[in-house]
Amino acid sequence: MKLKSLAILAASAAVLATSVTVTPASAYEYMVPQLVYRTGPYAPNGIPLANGFIDYMNMLNERDGGINGVKVKVVECETAYNTKVSVECYENLKNEGDSGALVFNPHSTGVTYALIPKATSDEIPILSMGYGRTSAADGTVFPYIFNFPTTYWSQASAFIKYIGDREGGMDKLKGKKIALVYHNSAYGKEPIKTLEVLGEKYGYELMLLPVDHPGQEQKATWLQVRRGKPDWVFMWGWGVMNQVAIKEAAGIRFPMDKFIGVWWSGSENDVAPAGEAANGYLAGTMHAPGSDFAAIDAIKKYVYAKGNGAGEESRVGEVLYNRGMLEAVFTAEAINNAVNIHGTKEIRGKHVRDGLEALEMTEADFARIGLKGFMKPFKVTCEDHEGGGPVAIQQWNAKDGKWVMVSDWIEPMKDIIRTLVKEDAAAFAKENNITPRNCG
Amino acid sequence: MLYRETGLFKTSYQADQALFTLTQDRILIGLILLVAFAIVPFMVNDYWSKAILLPFLIYSLVALGLNILVGYCGQISLGTGGFMAVGAYGAYKLMTGFPDMNLILVVVLSGGIAAAVGVLFGLPSLRIKGFYLAVATLAAQFFLIWMFNKVPWFYNYEMSQITVPPREVFGVLVTGPNSEPASQYLFTLSFVVFFTWIAMNLVRGRIGRGWMSIRDRDIAAELLGIKPLQTKLSAFAVSSFYVGMGGALVFTIWLGSVEATEAFDIQQSFFVLFAIIIGGLGSILGSFLGAAFMSLMPVVLKLILVDGVGVVPVDAKHIEIILVGVLIIVFLINEPAGMARMWQIFKEKMRLWPFPY
Amino acid sequence: MDVLYALLLQPFVFMAQEPLIFAETVVKGLMAGVLYSLVALGFVLIFKASGVFNFAQGTLALFAALTLVGLMEKMGDGLPKAAIVVIAIVATIGVMILLAMIVERFVLRPLVNQELIILFMATLGLSYVLEGVGDLTWGSDVKVLDIGLPDGVFDIGGVYVEQLDVVAAIVAGSMVTVLAIFFNKTRIGRALRAVADDHQAALSVGISLQQIWVIVWSVAGMVALVAGVMWGSKSGVQFSLSLIALKALPVLILGGFTSIPGAIVGGLIIGLGEKVVEVFWYDVHGGAVENWFAYMLALVFLMFRPQGLFGDKIIERV
Question: How high does pLDDT run on average in chain B?
Fold first, then answer.
């Protein structure tokens, strides 16, 4: 026993010793942390998101030698979608590398909420692209938090517009019934208020159907749908909940083209287990699906052809992969902006914040990046951290096994959403003694 | 040689009843407290505070609470996460409802609320025993979490994720993002030290002996005149009080923003149960050792595997999960009585060191 | 008054008004109950034979299903589908037996005679190991499990019943029958019952405990495979599958840890109860009560029978 424990002790000491060896100093690099979850219940979604981000940055490093000639170093930290681990990751990575963490992507609404106060005080921006706290769109109260190109509330209003269109006019919504099947958490509850406010305006009835994590068992939820006979079903789901919901919807023969998922419920993973039955299922999106883009060709050429891909090449171009890539695109553009604004290559998180705030993506910009037609142009301002908020609807084609855009870009109901955002942000500012800054 | 009783004579009852009867123990504890209070605060930074010290201290408090119930009174509970949530949401409601209330009072009152809820959910223990009780306490876990997520009053009609407002204690900011790591650490440390002292005295007094007799043979204890109702419910109350304070500290100091469904889910309950079993059931020291093991091991493993050996983070996580599992099993096999027992054996050896016979 | 009405009368009015939905709720509740029973069955088998409260049962289901899908993917399209399925299932059973041996050798044997809670914690540790190994070997993506089970809906006079659920019910039914025959009619089965009754006595008549444990864990592994296949066909095989253990626990305490019929009846009661309450009491609670309601329901039963419906009577001595 004694010998054994001695051996173990020696082994661990050896490991520890190797762990403290200092790596030789190298050229200046931009450190971009990635809070990823490749394990745990939400891993199937976390993997493509992270891969898209890393592949794009690697492509930039290979093709252009980084951003403005400075290499980008992506440091992953595995969170398993757990807030406590994410906080550890955040503290561990915020001062890592030459530049310190330039921008955080929490990849979870709950983690975003937890990091908002801390990141603001540490002057590191958070890019919660299409998730997180919606009212962070108010840049006067949340100077370090960005949730462009669009938010949950904008998306909910775009859904209402879309179904109004399908029903033949917004006035036709009166007396209609919409069921919201949602992940029973802060994330899932995000759209409720918007949908309620709009319900008062357009006269539809809203039916709320929460599903507890993880959502493996939803028979009762869909019995409710059968009982309430809603005209439309919206879903704010995540992980296994999506797959089961689509399967159950098919099980009660709910028409798939009246079933719309949030953009986190519209990936290849979500429709796969239901097979043919998922055909026609709709989901929101902020960017185009597919891999017919010059940027993706570049990723294949510079990263996968050299065997450096983060995942399997066949999965490049999946919905969540593209979203991870888009996140990397915005991060890279913001860093570039920051360098231009401040005239130095040695930037920190707070400089990237300025870069994010000055972000303007035009058609020409998307074409330059190699993503022509990938998404609608938008502009971030000091006041508006959401950008334009355009949303499109995509549909699953089970026969070809791919997502197809079926709507134009839908403008959200900006006036209403903006009012709600302002109200919520003001309440947050009051509770936390924040004086909104002046953007004028 | 260094560590033995020889030559230490107790000349009064008071000395005989002291918490630490050995001079060496007193010196050791004094040194630890000195380092913890006087040296660590000057060295602590954000990472040490948020990733290592606060989790360790808070989980120690929670483990202590659960140990009172499981280790001293023999009632297995899997509702720890739920009771922590009671403490956290209690603290939130108190802080927003009474903005001028002192944070110390807030944390203690939150513990009190948790104690009341604990007694309520402890009632079935009078009839249900063993693993049936363990599974039954899951009812508390799932119900409480559901309630905090469902009833808007608990989160002031906003998002169900609650965020702590900034508060000062004696003029020093301790909650919110702008507070210094040292002040947060000291605040938590004081709580843990004070309530550990209370617990040490509780378990060796009349109440604690009652708990232990119920644990060892409940029917026999009843025949001896120990009332199962009061004894079991007092264990539930005290345990939930500690756990509730832990939950309040998780929310106010450590994370600053929590969501019941995520921060206090069933995994928390297992986590703390692991801590006390690995640390040692029915041992105050064990609660600390177990909490240290469970909260620090993943961090250490990650540091070694990712930053040290350079394993890809995802593989490191898998290896970490496997290693945690293996270590737990190895621990249970080699020393089912926990790390506290290993410490005891070590002390025995130290009495004879360096001349064992 | 309104509250009382909504709580006590309204739901029954709904049931009378919507007989079709009520019928469907009952059917689906029972079907869900069957699936819970499948998981609970594994718990009961192991608890009976080795006194271990095996929390890893859910992870076993995940691990078995992962192995099955992984093997099927590895084999590709070279063979006819049926052949692939059969080979993969046989191989998976082999893996589960191997796993049972490993568990017996490295976890159970060193922990003989330990307290229940220690054994319970060891199985939690085991579930971590299995999760890690499963993920590391087969990856964390959602894997579509298609072993040719029917996938559609029966429409019986307006009541929708999923074919997969019917298959699950049939499989569960036949599995219980097979287990019952195995336990009552075979030599090994008798030995298993002997061990369950009294370890010491079983040892003294020459029954090898270690062998029995391997057998019982293998059987539990196969039950886990069936449960994993049934759940995995619906959601795809992924990590969340391991969490179905939590749905089986209330079933377990309601039925009693030691009773196979208890697991079945408990599953049906829980499934039926939680679905009916979730659907017809919706106006009172607003949804997502299934998780805690199952435990509360079990708790109510326990108040009257502290050992569960079919559990062995607890005899206490001083």
Answer: 91
- What is the rounded radius of gyration, in angstroms, for the C-alpha atoms of chain C? 21
Tell me whether C127 touches chain B (CB under 8 Å).
yes
**In this predicted complex, what is the ipTM?**
0.91
> By mean pLDDT, which of A281-290, B276-285, C190-199 is the weakest?
C190-199
C278 touches chain A (CB under 8 A): yes
User: Bridge partners of A34?
Assistant: A76
Average pLDDT of the segment spanning B77-84: 95
- Secondary structure letter of residue A105 according to DSSP: -
Q: Which residue of B has its CA nearest to A15?
A: B304
Has residue B283 been placed in a domain?
A: no
pLDDT at A3: 45
Q: A-contacting residues of B 18-47, CB under 8 Å? A: 46-47
Q: Which CATH architecture has domain A152-285?
A: 3-Layer(aba) Sandwich (3.40)
Residue of C nearest to B314 (CA): C136
Question: In whole angstroms, what is the distance from residue C97 CA to residue C64 CA?
Answer: 11
Q: Which residues of A touch B (CB under 8 A)?
A: 15-16, 18-20, 36, 38-39, 76-78, 80, 82-85, 87-88, 91-92, 94, 110, 113-114, 116-118, 120-122, 133, 184-186, 189-190, 212-213, 424, 427-428, 431-433
Which residues in chain C are contacts of B219 at CB distance < 8 A? 316-318
Query: Hey, where are the domains in chain A?
Result: 29-150+291-390+419-431, 152-285
A65's CB contacts (< 8 A; 6+ apart) are A71
Looking at the structure of chain B, the number of domains it has is: 1
For residue C292, what is the nearest residue in chain A, using CA coordinates? Answer: A212
Classify the phi-psi angles of A38: left when phi > 0, otherwise alpha if psi is within -120 to 50, otherwise beta: alpha
Name the pLDDT band for C48 (thresholds 50, 70, 90).
confident
Kind and range of the H or E element at A242? helix A240-251
Q: Is B356 on the interface with A (CB under 8 A)?
A: no
- Domain covering A29-150+291-390+419-431, topology: Rossmann fold (3.40.50)
Give me the DSSP letters along C125-168.
Answer: HHHHHHHHHHHHHH-SS-B---SS---SEEEETTEEEEHHHHHH
**pLDDT score at A18:** 45
Position B3 scores a pLDDT of 72
Residues in chain B: 357
Q: Is C274 on the interface with A (CB under 8 A)?
A: yes
Give the range of the structural domain holding residue B152, as residue numbers without chain letter: 46-265
Could you report the per-residue pLDDT of C98-119, keeping only the tens digit for each?
999 999 999 988 988 888 888 8
CATH class of C2-304: mainly alpha
Q: pLDDT tens-digit profile of A28-50? A: 899 999 999 988 889 999 999 99
Q: Let me know the angle formed at the C-alpha of C54 by C49 and C56, rounded to the nearest 5 degrees.
A: 140
